[in-house]
Specification:
about 375 residues, Aspartate Aminotransferase, domain 2, Aspartate Aminotransferase, domain 1, 7-stranded mixed sheet, two-stranded parallel sheet, 9 helices, binds pyridoxal-5'-phosphate
């Protein structure tokens, strides 16, 4: 069986070692005589799975003691609602709109309560224009009384990333959507009030959402659905109801793999190296491939690029699929192409992609 190079934005490639481990343990987990999928979430075996997953995640991200780790469902999208429901408490919140995802978060919060636009890099409300950079500090107008400031630190569709914490605004509680770059580098967790991520990009299978929330932010909401209440979830170890057990198990295997591979410092080095190779291929193509994002804000995880016209882009997709690549088509809202280089993508796969890009350009040019 051959596995292909999977550049999908999500659900995305998983480390082969984690998949093999799951295969090996699928029918009989650690001698329990059953699959993790078939176990009670309250039993001894699964309790061990979820505790280890949390401990490994805390280790990898150096999560401080005063933060809770929650294993929730509903995707990152449900957090667009959960965050205002938990944190607004009658106040207003600030939003930075830097791409399609943070815009969705802002629009959803506006349905729930009072929100302000603290910064936007959109141009004329057209999703295919603008969104080519992270705002500078002097462009972010923060309301000092805001309940929180929401931002997306890696815009998966537009390929814009806050590459380190020095770009973050200060003096306000930050709520960060890190769905597509969590675990790609060490993160200064204490700079954020809440971090969340759908698992299916850089963590594990879909169906699981990670939430890392500072304890003092719990319990501010008056009446909200209990399943969305961070305090209730924290008090019940994410088990108010049945959690996504198999997805948590898979994420746990990914955490173990990350630790074995050298942790997040190693992932940061690799992400730098992998993305640099693709950006270099784009730059050296003399305009054959184009990426509109400002150099210092270019995502190491998701690299959108365009060709001269839609027909050529369609040909690129077709020929790349025939050559053993998957998932290079851009998001439907913006078109074009996109290569996602999550932790599970080895350097070898990136080298193969870069070769293909050069060869395709030479053939067309
Ligand atoms: C994929 C993605 C989402 C949506 O995630 P779901 O889990 O499908 O709800 C939100 N934000 C970002 C940054 C994403 O990449």
């Amino acid at each position: 069986m051959t596995r292909i190079w999977n550049f999908s934005a999500g659900p995305a490639a998983l480390p082969e070692a984690a998949l093999s481990k799951a295969q090996e343990e699928l029918l009989n987990w650690h001698g329990a005589g059953a699959s993790v999928m078939e176990m009670s979430h309250r039993g001894k075996c699964f309790t061990e799975v979820i505790r280890e997953a949390e401990a490994d995640l805390r280790d990898l991200l150096a999560i401080p003691e005063n933060y809770k780790v929650l294993f929730l469902q509903g995707g990152a999208t449900l957090q667009f609602s959960a965050i205002p429901l938990n944190l607004l408490a009658g106040r207003s919140a600030d939003y930075m709109v830097t791409g399609a995802w943070s815009k969705k978060a802002w629009q959803e919060a506006a349905r729930i309560g009072k929100v302000r636009l603290a910064a936007t890099t959109e141009v004329d409300g057209r999703p295919s224009d603008g969104f080519t950079r992270f705002p500078r500090a002097d462009e972010i107008a923060i309301d000092p009384k805001a309940a929180y400031l929401h931002l997306c630190t890696n815009e998966t569709i537009h390929g814009v990333e806050a590459r380190d914490e020095s770009l973050l605004p200060e003096g306000v509680t930050l709520a960060a959507d890190m769905s597509s770059h969590i675990l790609s580098r060490p993160m200064e967790v204490s700079r954020y009030g809440i971090i969340y991520a759908g698992a299916q990009k850089n963590v594990g299978p879909s169906g699981l959402t990670l939430v890392i929330v500072r304890e003092d932010l719990l319990g501010q909401a008056e009446v909200i659905p209990r399943l969305l209440d961070y305090r209730a979830q924290a008090e019940n170890d994410s088990m108010l109801n049945t959690p996504a057990t198999f997805a948590i198990y898979m994420a746990g295997l990914v955490f173990k793999w990350l630790k074995k591979e050298g942790g997040l410092t190693r992932m940061a080095d690799l992400s730098h190296e992998k993305s640099a190779r693709v950006y270099e291929a784009i730059e050296q193509s003399e305009g054959f491939y184009r990426n509109p994002v400002d150099k210092e804000c270019r995502s190491r995880m998701n690299i959108p690029f365009r060709l001269a016209n839609a027909e050529l882009e369609a040909r690129f997709v077709r020929e790349s699929e025939a050559a053993g690549f998957m998932g290079l088509k851009g998001h439907k809202s913006v078109g074009g192409l996109r290569a996602s280089l999550y932790n599970a993508m080895p350097l070898e796969g990136v080298a193969a992609l870069v070769d293909f890009m050069r060869e395709f350009a030479a053939r067309q040019g």
